[in-house]
Design brief:
The complex is a heterotrimer of chains A (189), B (87) and C (71).
Chain A: H1 19-30, H2 35-45, H3 54-79, H4 84-89, H5 93-99, H6 124-148, H7 152-180, H8 185-188
Helix pairs in contact in A: 1-3, 1-6, 2-3, 2-6, 3-7, 6-7
Chain B: H1 3-29, H2 34-58, H3 69-73
Chain C: E1 6-9, E2 25-28, H1 47-53
Antiparallel strand pairs in C: 1-2
The chains are: A mainly alpha (189), B mainly alpha (87), C little secondary structure (71).
Amino acid sequence: MWVYEKKLLYPVEVKECNPKLARYIAEQYGGADGELAAALRYMNQRYTVPDKVIGVLNDIATEEFSHLEMLATMIYKLTKDATPEQLEEAGLGPHYVNHGHALFYENASGVPFTTTYIQAKGDPIADLYEDIAAEEKARATYQWIIDVSDDAWINDSLKFLRERENVHSLRFREAVEILKDERDRKKIF
Amino acid sequence: MDATERRDMLKNVQQADFVVVELTLYTNTHPDDQEALTQWRLAIKEAASLRKMYEKRFGPLSLHSIPSEQAIDTGWRWNQAPWPWQM
Amino acid sequence: MDDTFRGSYEPYISPCDPCPPVLVKTFSLPPQLFMNFQPASLPQFSPAEALQHGSLWPALVDGYSKREGIS
């Protein structure tokens, strides 16, 4: 089970109304390489990986949910008091007519989240390699969002999230190394 | 309640908790690193103490903590704004 | 940005390219590529610095800013 903590992982600061930036950040909220996809992918893979690497998947999945909450905070604040006209101007007209000011799990183009973004192959190496790729793709996405954002405060949070992808990628790489050490184990016993 | 002081004290908790997050992930893949395991245990202790200081004044961050008299006296409720995304 | 964690290449440039050509393209080569398994006892940030940088270990941090003009 999980227990809610009434705080963010990192102090997100949002100082300006900017629905267009919110739309771009949605790529990491409900997109193919986003935090929701990451959280659900690892949370689901953890049941069928060797015991030695369950902790890595369990704890990274849990952290991804805290990243999702950081992104939600950014999207919520960037659009909170925006008028329908401002949202339309930012390309969020179609979002507004379907969701109003609500957040939704969709990518920057408004495509709704789908579990076809993720996989669970039941093969530990196949799954961990997907996870490493997911972290590198998320890192790249953060780079491109930072490139199109002029908001220094938002970029500070995005930079933090990008760095977490580096760390997670390393932990998954280490998980692969741990499994490589299991070679021929059966012969020893 | 001083909003700036609350933010600062919360940031102390966020910093200490982040060290725990990092060391937890690290020790998951380095189960035999005794130095790291010791640091991890101390980091949890430090985070718990900073959390206690914050919660004593401003109320529980999770329902694993007992609400302090001080927090109850000042009208603390779990279902009370601001939530983290509203702050 | 830390140059250690970036790669670059010079793409073919056609006289027919419609946009002003970028002569050198840069890309990320983040720290985890060169580590694969983190060694014990790496130097650490203070808790405040760690949260700010996004990792407890400076060796895992390569940073990123829009000034870089990667892509």
